[in-house]
Automatic annotation (TrEMBL):
SMART domains: PostSET (SM00508), SET (SM00317). One of its GO terms (cellular component) is chromosome. Keywords: Chromosome, Methyltransferase, Nucleus, S-adenosyl-L-methionine, Transferase. Residues 1-54, 71-110, 143-196, 316-366, 673-697, 763-926 are annotated as: Disordered. Residues 345-358, 675-690 have a biased composition (Basic and acidic residues). Residues 8-26, 908-917 have a biased composition (Polar residues). This is Histone-lysine N-methyltransferase ASH1L. It comes from Lasiosphaeria ovina.
Length: 937
């Protein structure tokens, strides 16, 4: 690299050097010389340095005049400043411009070249291109005129520690290197440079001026690379407390009280940097200064005071006549008044005055407060007297309490809470939200792990074929005879038969029909959503999963459908013995004889638990010819969040399988079992039994004949071995009575067969009403009375008993399968259990005979000849067990509050439909039959 001699030497401006210099000079013109390198100035002012005027080339001379006067003045000022400073004169050799490693010319040389000489005007500055490479200093900063306060870092003023960066190519070399005369090593910084640094007030730390490593050729470069100084600066800025005086303002108009700064008032940005604050302050000050003297700023309202009247958020114009104001709506009134004012601005007051005189003062209408018709206490009694149920002593004691001593004049409007707390507490009533205030509950309930749903029933195996053979499959289509005003209420024949109305069988039409529960359910739930579905599975604390309502339900409203696979009894047995043999509980519900709904894969209705005081009922319906089963609300509304339950009427069969009931109701039976009345039904009179024995030989077939034939011949020989006990529950009996009324055959039937007909006409009617969801009590009672009458007129065997057990049941001998004949009506226990036929076979062994009971029961006959005997209502479910100890579980016993049988009588009486009457007859017969093998007893 060619050494560039110091510019102070004239020899350096040889041709070669000149070229280089000229290139540097050319660079001077790159930027306007707003700033000036102090070191260059110092060099220029150094007396030892030869005056550059003698060495300036003509080119430079041409460039000098370009310097503006102001700049020149600046430069001169700087020169004077530097001249005043004592400094060492540097030898020309030291003033030589050191080259950096890249061989570039340092700006020192340039500075020397462009050093203006006061004696030699015109000094026009330096060429612009060279200027660009010069270090740029902020003169304002250097001169201390910049409005920055001193910053402090670590307790010291930043100025003293601050590392300022100099231009990267500033010659800053170690003195040692220069002393050695080693030309390869960058020479020591020339004094003028140091002076310049000093002038800037830069106090470089020792580390900064330490001998630099070969990789760091000079101090300045190293300093540039150190970002720490920046960090320090920031830190110190942060740590420096903001000058309160600069921010705190004083109210100019007031008494010098300090007020919050404008910035803090205006901005909501919170903590900001000082720069931002100052910037914002400046800006706001500038903007607000103009407003400072305004009235708005000082909150001085110079406008005339105008009094306005507002009522209920509306402006009342005092000038407007009251009538008009009351009659016209505000907007219209405003427009009218405007137009009137525009038309006759001067006459208006006169007109108003005239009007006022003519009409006189209009009495103000008193606003009537609108009270909510529903609330916490709606539908509840007024508070009772707190002393009501107390004895005299307690009353006296209570009355002596200071809190309860009545004040002379109680302040009813705003009673002081201090002395009325106790009274209010005592007067307070328990409340329950009205049931129809619905609010879906929050999610988050644990759900069953394996949970497969099926929203529609599905026939499996022979079940479909079997169902198609049942009379219900075709009978449902016969039309009801309702009128639109009836609305398919309780008298609707379809309803009585538990056939849901649809377009094919309804005489009324959808608009008026009330017998479309399943359709309503479908419409309600088709959109989905927690509220519409209205139920959700919840985890109970002690009974596994359960179902709770997610909304409220009206009494008797349909809630959800019990769906699953419809299987035959054989399939049920198979599943019980093979598939569900290890299950804890089963989800099997008998719909009809040989028709079981297995909800193991089904709707969430299977999770509904049992309660001895249930709030729901499980009812079987036929919808469009298909068997359906659904959970309906009971006779009271259901609130949001209530657990839904129905009475399983669970029959555990053996003590082994008895489960403790955890329903927690006051009348809990203690175990999951049948209702008490069912456990011990009142024994029939002996004569009746005898007569039964004497009259009935065979099972259901004979009985049916008798019932159907009416006047058929009496059996000649009383059966010896078979005891047929026909217990007529209220509904069956009612059905029977209805049939009698319809056909006139009951008399003889009862005559022939000694029946124990237990009737609860009143309760039946009630149940019917509930189940049907309607409540025309009067007519129901009438019918009940009529039915009662008809039954009372029957023979001695007919008895009327309001409190008769709803489910008829007779226990048989130990280990003997109990056979029960139930109807489609949910009033009778529906059985699902293990064992039944297959179990019996197992128990009996291959060589043994099937127990007689099996043969004798209508169940068996129904099973063998479903077409003949299996009236859909006579479902015989033989409880099934597994292995040797049959696990007899009655998982489903639909609510005994059946609706169907109750309606049978009415239907039989009223309906012209022979098919329906026939079905009612079938049901009536089958529902009441309990067959017990003589041998077993
Ligand atoms: C059809 S399941 C009902 C859903 C069942 N809780 C579950 O988690 O799957 C019937 C079984 O629930 C239990 N259960 C239902 N109601 C009950 C009650 N009130 N007390 C005790 N256990 C009950 C019994 O174990 C019964 O066998």
């Amino acid at each position: 690299m060619a050494e560039i001699g110091p510019l102070s030497s004239e020899t350096s401006f040889s041709s070669g050097a000149l070229t280089e210099s000229s290139s540097n000079i050319a660079s001077f013109s790159s930027t306007p010389p707003t700033t000036l390198s102090p070191d260059s100035m110092s060099l220029a002012s150094d007396p030892d340095v030869p005056k550059h005027g003698s060495i300036v080339t003509p080119l430079l001379d041409a460039a000098i005049p370009l310097l503006e006067d102001a700049q020149k003045a600046q430069i001169q000022q700087m020169e004077r400043d530097f001249d005043r400073k004592p400094r060492n004169t540097s030898p020309p050799a030291e003033a030589q411009e050191p080259n950096d490693q890249s061989g570039r010319h340092t700006p020192v040389a340039n500075a020397i070249v462009v050093e203006p000489l006061p004696e030699e005007p015109p000094f026009a500055g330096r060429a612009r291109r060279a200027r660009a490479s010069l270090p740029v200093y902020n003169l304002a900063k250097l001169s201390g005129t910049r409005p920055y306060t001193k910053r402090v870092a670590n307790g010291e003023p930043v100025d003293s520690k601050r590392r300022r960066t100099i231009a990267s190519d500033t010659p800053a070399t170690d003195s040692d290197e220069t002393a050695n005369g080693d030309t390869d090593v960058p020479p020591k910084a020339p004094e003028p440079v140091q002076d310049g640094i000093d002038a800037m007030g830069l106090d470089l730390p020792a580390a900064a001026v330490a001998p630099s490593s070969p990789t760091t050729p000079n101090r300045a470069r190293r300093i540039i690379k150190k970002p720490k100084s920046v960090k320090l600066t920031i830190k110190s800025t942060k740590s420096t407390p903001a000058p309160a005086a600069s921010i705190t303002r004083r109210a100019t108009r007031l008494s010098g009280e300090p007020v919050a700064s404008l910035t803090s008032k205006i901005t909501a940005l919170g903590k900001r940097s000082r720069k931002t604050v100052e910037k914002g302050l400046d800006r706001m000050t500038h903007e607000l200064r103009r407003l400072q003297d305004t009235n708005e700023f000082a909150h001085i309202d110079t406008r005339p005071v105008r009094y306005t009247v507002w009522s209920n958020g509306k402006y009342i114009d005092p000038d407007a006549p009251e009538e008009e104001a009351a009659a016209t709506p505000p907007r219209k009134k405003a427009r009218t008044s405007e137009s009137a004012t525009a038309a006759q601005p001067d006459k208006e007051p006169e007109i108003d005055a005239e009007k006022k005189e003519a009409t006189g003062p209009v009495p103000k209408k008193r606003r009537v407060k609108k009270w909510l018709d529903r609330g916490l206490y709606s539908g509840q009694d007024t508070p009772v007297d707190v002393f009501q149920n107390l004895n005299a002593q307690d009353k006296k004691k209570l009355a002596s309490l200071p809190e309860l001593i009545r004040p002379v004049k109680p302040n009813k409007t705003l009673p002081s809470p201090m002395y009325n707390g106790l009274r209010m507490l005592m007067n307070g009533r328990d409340f329950k939200l009205p049931f129809d205030i619905c609010s879906p509950l929050p999610p988050g309930q644990p759900k069953p792990a394996h949970y497969r749903t099926m929203t529609k029933n599905r026939f499996v195996g022979d079940a479909s074929a079997y169902w198609k053979k049942t009379p219900h499959f075709g009978d449902f289509a016969s039309k009801c005879v309702c009128k639109p005003e009836d609305g398919c209420a309780e008298d609707c024949q379809n309803r009585i038969m538990l056939y849901e109305c649809d377009e094919t069988n309804c005489n009324v039409g959808k608009a008026h029909c009330q017998n479309r529960a399943f359709q309503n359910l479908q419409e309600r739930t088709k959109t989905g959503g927690r509220y519409r579905v209205g139920v959700e599975v919840v985890k109970t604390s002690d009974r596994g999963y359960g179902v709770r309502s997610n909304r409220c339900f009206e009494p008797n409203q349909i809630i959800m459908e019990y769906t699953g696979e419809i299987i035959t009894e054989e399939e049920c047995d198979r599943r019980m013995n093979e598939v569900y043999k290890d299950n804890e509980c089963y989800y099997l519900m008998s719909f009809d004889q040989n028709m079981i709904i297995d909800a193991t894969t089904g709707s969430i209705a299977r999770f509904v638990n049992h309660s001895c005081s249930p709030n729901c009922r499980m009812i079987k319906w036929i919808v469009s010819g298909q068997p359906r089963m659904a959970l309906f609300a009971g006779d009271r509304p259901i609130m949001t969040g209530e657990e839904l339950t129905y009475d399983y009427n669970f029959d555990p069969f053996s003590a082994k399988n008895v489960q403790k009931c955890l329903c927690g109701s006051p009348n809990c039976r203690g175990v999951l079992g049948p209702k008490p009345k069912e456990v011990k039904p009142p024994k029939p009179p002996k004569e009746t039994k005898k007569s039964v024995k004497g009259t009935i030989k065979t099972g259901k077939r004979k009985l049916k004949e008798m019932l159907a034939g009416g006047d058929e011949e009496e059996p000649e020989k009383p059966a010896k071995k078979v005891k047929l006990v026909i217990k007529k529950a209220k509904k069956p009996s009612l059905s029977s009575a209805g049939l009698k009324a319809a056909k006139g055959a009951a008399k003889s039937a009862v005559k022939g067969a000694t029946l124990i007909i237990r009737r609860g006409v009143a309760s039946v009617s009630t149940n019917t009403k509930l189940a049907l969801g309607s409540s025309t009590k009067k007519s129901t009672t009438k019918k009940a009375a009529a039915t009662r009458k008809s039954i009372t007129t029957s023979k001695k065997s007919t008895t009327t008993d309001k409190e008769a057990p709803r489910v008829k049941r007779k226990y048989v001998k130990k280990n003997t399968p109990r056979v029960k004949v139930s109807s489609r009506s949910s009033s009778l226990t529906t059985i699902v259990a293990a064992g039944s036929a297959s179990e019996k076979k197992k128990t009996a062994g291959p060589g043994k005979k099937t127990p007689k009971t099996k043969k004798m029961t209508p169940a068996s006959s129904a099973k063998s000849t479903p077409k003949k005997s299996a009236t859909p209502s006579s479902s015989v479910k033989v409880a099934s067990g597994r292995k040797r100890t049959p696990s007899w579980k009655v998982l489903n016993s639909a609510s005994p509050d059946s609706e169907m049988a109750a309606g049978d009588a009415v239907s039989a009486k009223n309906t012209p439909s022979s098919a329906k009457s026939r079905n009612a007859l079938d049901m009536a017969r089958s529902d009441k039959i309990w067959v017990v093998d003589d041998d077993d007893e």
